[in-house]
Amino acid sequence: MEKESIFPRDILTNMVRWTERREAFAIKGPRQSGKTTLLRILEDSLEKKGVRTVFLNFEDPDILESFETTRLKIEQLVFEEQVKLMDRAQIIQMYDKILAGEEEVFDPPVYFEWNTYRALVAIDNANVLPNFVMDEDHQPVSHAAGNRPDLIAEFDDFIVVTEVTLQTGKRQYMVEREPVVDHVGCIQKEERSKPTPRNVFGLFIAPKIVPNTVNYFYISAQTDTEEYEGPVLVIPIELNEFIDMVEFSGQVEKLKQDEIKQLMLRFLKAFESAKKPSDWRRLIVNNIMEWKKAIVLDRKKKKN
Hints:
CATH architecture of the largest domain: 3-Layer(aba) Sandwich
Structural class: alpha/beta
Largest sheet: 5 strands, mixed
Number of strands: 7
Number of helices: 10
Strand order of the largest sheet: 1-4-5-6-7
Distance between the termini: 78 Å
CATH topology of the largest domain: Restriction Endonuclease
CATH class of the largest domain: Alpha Beta
Shape: elongated
Radius of gyration: 27 Å
């Protein structure tokens, strides 16, 4: 007996009509009532008409995992689009709440990572990869794993590895210096093993950068380390300087990839021209101001 004879002809006819309308529909019935068999009959009927079909069994754990991964990626993209439309003032206000230790900020270091992630998404067109954990509502839950950087911003031909901390004073130097260089250096090593490697820049953000931390990063940028396949550049900037960049990105209605790259290259040149670590920090601050002026001037020229 043919499969089609199991069901009344009008059921199959109506289902084919529904597929032509390109609308979703459901087949409801108790277990073992023939729902899967009916779908297989529909699949055969459509393929005889030259219609390509895909049969997915959501009882298959591999298929379920694949769709869950896709769902999470889509939700991430939606969240990032919402962040891009967000008023920069909201992000800056959250930094104030984090520093003040307000009640809603139950774990300030985690919120600091999360808010910096939102800031990076808002100011540029990078693919920003957070390594800390967020819940289904994209609220922060826990820190990035200890063997990975807090954030990785991927551009077409360069990468900005971002590390953040609320630590200050001697503890900042003791706790942050080596892991930060290692995280940036490991990403640099990964890139240099590729056929077309991208330049890797490290960005270290803290409310206050202590001199010993600057000294360590200055030395690491001078040291040709075999472990990381070259010197590791980590640019130390204070939170108020980063906030200035966030505010500026709103004033110019988003920064372009090339404009972000120009800032990183300015930081590199500042290091190369600095005679000592304190000079480097001063030049970093100056270059942020000069970079902003250059972007405004360049955009005016292009408009004219």
